[in-house]
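Late entry, evening session. Most of the bench is empty. Finally got around to the prediction I had been postponing all week. Sequence below, unchanged from the version circulated by S.P.
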Amino acid sequence: MTIPHDEELLEEFRQKGFSEKRDRREGFAWSLDFSSPYIATAIHAGHNVSGSMLPFMNMTPARRLFEEDCATDIMIHGLSNCVWGLESRAVYDLNRSPELALPLTPEKFWGATVYKEMPLPELNRRNISAYEEFYRFVGTCITFILEKFDFCIIYDIHSYNTIRQLEKRIFNPPIFNLGTALVDRQKWTPQIDLWLELLSKIALPGMETTVAENHVFKGEGEFCRCLTGWDSRILVLPTEVSKIYMDEMDGRLYTDVVIALQKGIGDAVKAHQAGLAF
């Protein structure tokens, strides 16, 4: 399968070997030096809603924040290759298929009414275009990494609300959950097992680190589905962090825990790369 990409941007990567920017509509940002065969992503970190969309928005910023993956961009900053969302998933969701990406009805956003009135058709088209642009960008990055290293690992970092798990009677949800339902588990066993082991070693203040595979989530989002389908040399590791680092209801961050997660995930990515055998 051909990986979607932008040939002009790919040539820029080949010439410069690094890039640090935001896209033209500031839907996402990146910092890449292509020194290693991985990209750490935080596709739901964004909270922004453009001025043209705000008049249609029904959800308060606090309610949006509950559904977003707050601070996951901080957790990956400082790594050699990272890409993170700037625009809220209440505008378009990068982890859903194109036909489900716009949360225009409550069933597409956990039963919540995102918009008080339907956004104009041209705005919906623009948002889908931004969604497609993101995937072309990621495809371009991966294409370049495959040219250099012949494999690519995506550390796909998300977060989840423990409140929802308690409502499902999951009383001890893990701090880290790795979803592998869409991954060739047999082919990538050493890499997956090493990642689980490294996650379990992350030290967090005042709490015991717990790790599970396919417990609260199975990693069945569109991002993993799409990238895994592009090329068999791509390994996506959909990693969920429980929101033990913040107050889920008011959005207040626990700075010491966020810093510990940034260090721990950063160290885990570097150790994972150092320990890989292909």
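Two things to note before I forget:
The two ends are 22 Å apart (CA to CA).
The chain has one domain: 7-275.
Will write this up properly tomorrow.
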